[in-house]
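Hey team,

Filing this mostly as a record. A colleague (T.K.) asked me to run one chain through the structure pipeline before their review meeting, and I want the input and output archived in the tracker in case anyone asks later how it was produced. No errors, nothing strange. Just documentation.

Input sequence:
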Amino acid sequence: MGIRVLIMLFACGATLSGCDNDRERTIFLTIASVRPADRQELYYSSGETSWKPLYICKRGSEEWEIWSAWNPIHGFDERYEEGYEYRIEVAHRTIAYDNNVADANPDTYRLVRIVSKIKKTSEGIPAHFLPEE
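Output structure:
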């Protein structure tokens, strides 16, 4: 009976140790009040779901970057309204895949909460990225 318990504990420990490579951390982002210019290469669509890119500013930075639609922030896209600048808290998880998984994206992003939503025009976005009027 004792050996069975030891084997089960060893098996459980080996199974759980595979999860040690998965990491989750919290990041804070500012999301601009406008989306990038309509360029198809920036958009992602898969079956019933499609995401659009965003302009983001990471905490501690003053430079706007394009947040690719290939890494959607799950739970945010359907809440985004143009004309509002957002500060959001996001859970960023990196998953360690086996080398056998070819095109797997190791990063996933999930909205934790909207810290603030302010009606305003975001400033400092590079003009060549703005939609033409």
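Quick notes for T.K.: DSSP finds one helix and eight strands in the chain. Confidence is low (pLDDT under 50) at residues 4-20, 41-46.
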